[in-house]
Every structure is written in C-alpha cells, then in structure tokens.
Write a structure and sequence with these properties.
GO molecular function, one term: ligase activity
Low-confidence stretches: none
InterPro entries: RNaseH-like_sf
Structural class: alpha/beta
Order of helices and strands: HEEEHHEHHEHHHHHHHHHHEEHHHHHHHH
Protein name: E3 SUMO- ligase KIAA1586-like
Strand order of the largest sheet: 3-2-1-4-5
Keywords: Ligase
Distance between the termini: 15 Å
C-alpha cells in the first residue's frame, strides 16, 4: 500500500513537502518520524506518514535521504520537486550552521525551511515566565496541583466527589507551559477556572480531614490560601484571557494552511493588543465579582498572600505581542532581532502567496494585473514551474473574479498548499506510535512498528480492507 502510494507520487511528480521529528520509543530506540505532503491524482495535497527509520549514529540528514530513496524518491526527483521541510525547534534540526534543515538547504537550495509555528507559539509564552514578575507564581501553583492530583488517585477521587456535590464539571488538570502545544495549557488552565469552587471545597475539607497527616493538611491549607487570594485570582483571570486567545491560534495553525497562517497571527496580535487596553472577558468577570466579595460562591481574601505578586497585565500582554512578532513573522526565526532577513523572506513569501487569494485583491483589479504577475513569477521561480501557462491561467482567474481556479493555474496553487507550517502530524504520529508499541509490546522491531503505524494512520478500517491483493500473486 505504501509503495503504491509513493510510486504514484513519483510518476505524477507533484511538489512535495517533508515533515520530520525525532523521538524515543518505549524500548529506548531513537527514531525519526517522516511525513510527506503531496497531491495525488490531481487532488488537493494530503499529508501522510511515510516511515519511522531508526536514528542511529548516522546524521539525521543521511537517515532522511536514505529513507526517501528507499521509497523511490531519487536525488533528481527531490532536486526538481522538493519545495519545503518542516520540523520543531530542536538545535539539531534548526542549527544555523550544521542543523539538519540548513544542511538540506545546501543540497537542495530551493526548499523552504520552516520552523513549526505551533512550537514557536509555545516558545512565545514560555519566554514570559521568567521575565514577568508574578507569572511564575501562577505556573508553580499549577505544577503543585498537577503533583497533588496525578500522584494520588485518592486526592483525585476526593476532588471528583466535591465536583459532584457542587454540580461542577471537573476537567482534567494538567501541566501548563511545559508541554508542546498551547492548546494543552489552555485546557489545563480552563480546568482550574471551571473547577474553582470544587477545588476550594476539596482544599478546605482536606486541610481539616483526619484522613491526611499534618504535612498533607498544611499543603492543602496553603493551596487554599493561594486559590482564594485576590492577587492570585486577578493573575489567573489575566492568564486565562491570554491563553484562551493563544489556544485558538494554536488550533487554527494546526490546519496547516500557509495562506491563512499570516492572517491568523495578525488577528491574534490585534486581539492581545485590545486585551491590553481593556479588561478581557475573564478579568472583567473577576473584577465584578470582587466588588461583591466572592467569586463563584467562594469568599475572596483581599489581603496578599506571602510571596504573591500581582502581574502587571499591560506589561504581560505587551511582552506577548513582542514575542509573537519576533518569533512568528519569519521562516525559522528565534526571538533575536538578528532574524530580520528571515522575517523579510517570510513577508515576501506571504505577500507572493496572497495574490492567489481573491479576497486579498485590490477592489478594482482587472487583467492584466502586472503587480500581481510579478509576484506570480517569483512563486513560479521558487517552485520551478512554467510561468507562461500559469500567467495565462492567472489572468483568467482575475477575469472570472476569483470564482473558479483555472486548470493551468492549479499547479502553483497546489504547490502553495503543499507547503507546511506545522509539524503537528509528527506529534500525533508519535502519540499513535506509543499506542502501537505499548510497554507490553516493547519487543516490536522498528521496521514492523513502521508498517503497523502506517496501517494505523493511513490504512482503511479493518472492515473495509481487502487483503487479497496483498496475499495473492
């Protein structure tokens, strides 16, 4: 099945992008997961799992090229059709001198090197933890909650019982800002926000319960003091407003649409700037509740808890805006100002791609639109496509008002849609890998694991799969 799919890609020679990431199996073998995004049979580009080669002492670059060659992607094919590669921000992948992406671009100068936007979004938030006074207290409280409830089924059961009594839906409480996706942090923070009365009830009961020793009682009493302090509640509300917006952006970026990514990021930057100037939804709710002296039926202590610092929310939001602009408006930029050249390359690429979006055209555009054709020619040059026929299709596209994409314009549209902005599929692939290779199946060989992973991710459901073509000659 996998060989047939790769053979079809090689024969049709569409433009392809590659996603790569490195991880370790439960059997402690280092592996490299490889995904490919390509158009098959003239349809919209799809992303599919390719292989899970064992990452040994060889360089990741060599392993990747051997993997691609194994499935028929020759050096000549890659030189003509490989247009993009995406990975996370590990230094071995994105090192400026000897990183995998840099070494690949030396062999294939045409590829677009892309640092996963979802990983960079997480970095935008984690950068603020040490620089903004008070934010560390918020995150340390979540870390303590994670320890209390994930290391003790008894505590989790007690919290669940409190939730039932208060008719509050208990959401899973997890770590924040220490996992890859902002959306995961959003769910953990929302769990505390929604379960606020249940947490207070459990802390209060546990601090007085005879079932806990004096040390445990002290822990729950301290958690309750922090939870019910005015400073912490205001800090929590400000962080909820922030992470909710970033969580929406993270989920939207996982749709992996480069044409929309730039607009989504700009929209989120404007949203955070507005929150900086006026209270967000959750902060406004807390401020109104504090006037009454309680929040969700819990009495709030107006006095500051020892060591608790109130976050300067305007500074907090401005720091996020600055980080978003420095990290996301580039192809592989870090938070350093020296990445201006990469930012310029990103702006140029996005500007060129915008001409294919009819909603971004000038109001009174008609063909020939020479300014747009200059950008179209740059795209064709980048993707090694014939400009003459595509330009004709572009003029037809303008004449029909962007209602339908002409056939001779589709090659450049397909190439753009094949570019990747996030390596989220790799992360989901690793999650599936851990389900396939569980601790009791740790003896699976890497090659067999790769085949099972392909069937799990790409293959049809068992009830629809016809095995006869694969077992008969």
């Amino acid at each position: 099945m996998r060989k047939k799919l790769c053979k079809a890609i090689v024969e049709q020679a569409p433009k392809i992008s590659v996603y790569i990431d490195e991880s370790t199996t439960v059997s402690t073998h280092s592996v490299l997961i490889v995904y490919i995004c390509a158009s098959v049979n003239g349809k919209d580009p799809v992303t599919f799992f390719l292989d899970l080669p064992k990452a040994d002492a060889q360089s990741i670059e060599a392993i990747l090229l051997v993997c691609l060659s194994k499935f028929g992607f020759s050096n000549d094919f890659l030189a003509e059709n490989w247009i993009g590669v995406c990975s996370d921000g590990a230094s071995v992948m994105l090192g400026r001198r000897s990183g995998v992406l840099e070494r690949l671009s030396q062999k294939y100068p045409q590829i677009v090197k892309w640092h996963c936007l979802c990983h960079r979004l997480e970095l935008c938030i984690s950068d603020k933890i040490d620089s903004i006074p008070g934010l560390h207290h918020v995150t340390s409280f979540f870390e303590k909650l994670y320890t209390v409830y994930h290391q003790s089924p008894k505590n989790l059961a007690e919290l669940s019982e409190c939730s039932k009594e208060l008719e509050v839906q208990m959401l899973k409480i997890g770590k924040v800002f220490s996992v890859i996706w902002v959306a995961s942090s959003q769910r953990a923070i929302r769990a505390v926000w929604e379960s606020y009365p249940a947490l207070h009830s459990h802390f209060l009961k546990a601090s007085l319960s005879l079932a806990h020793n004096s040390k445990q009682k002290s822990v729950f009493s301290g958690l309750n003091k922090v939870l019910t302090s005015e400073d912490y509640l205001l800090n929590l509300a400000g962080v909820v407003d922030d992470v909710q917006e970033m969580g929406l952006l993270s989920e939207a970026l996982q749709r992996d649409d480069i044409a929309q990514a730039y607009q989504l990021i700009n929209c989120s930057v404007r949203a955070v700037e507005k929150i900086k100037d006026m209270p967000g939804k959750h902060l406004k709710e807390v401020m109104e509740s504090l006037e009454k002296g309680n929040f969700k039926g819990v009495t709030i202590n107006p006095e500051s808890t020892n060591g608790q610092v109130r976050i300067n929310l305007p500074q907090f939001y401005q720091s996020l805006v600055d980080n978003l602009r420095s990290r996301l408006f580039a192809l592989t930029a870090s938070n350093r100002s020296a990445a201006s050249s990469e930012s310029g390359e990103f702006e140029t690429l996005v500007s060129d791609i915008d001409i294919l979006n009819s909603q971004r055209w000038p109001i009174s555009v008609d063909s020939p639109w020479f300014e747009g054709e200059v950008k179209l020619e740059q795209l064709c040059k980048r993707f090694r496509l014939s400009y003459a026929s595509i330009c004709e299709g572009f003029r037809d596209y303008i004449d029909n008002g962007g209602a339908e994409i002409p056939e001779n314009l589709k090659p450049v549209v397909t190439a753009v849609n094949s570019l990747s902005v996030t390596s989220g599929d790799c992360e989901r692939g690793f999650s599936t890998m851990n389900l396939v290779m569980s601790p009791i199946r740790s003896g699976l060989g890497i090659e067999r694991l790769s085949s099972l992973l392909f069937n799990s991710l790409i293959g049809p459901p068992v009830n629809l799969w016809d095995p006869l073509p694969y077992v008969t000659k």
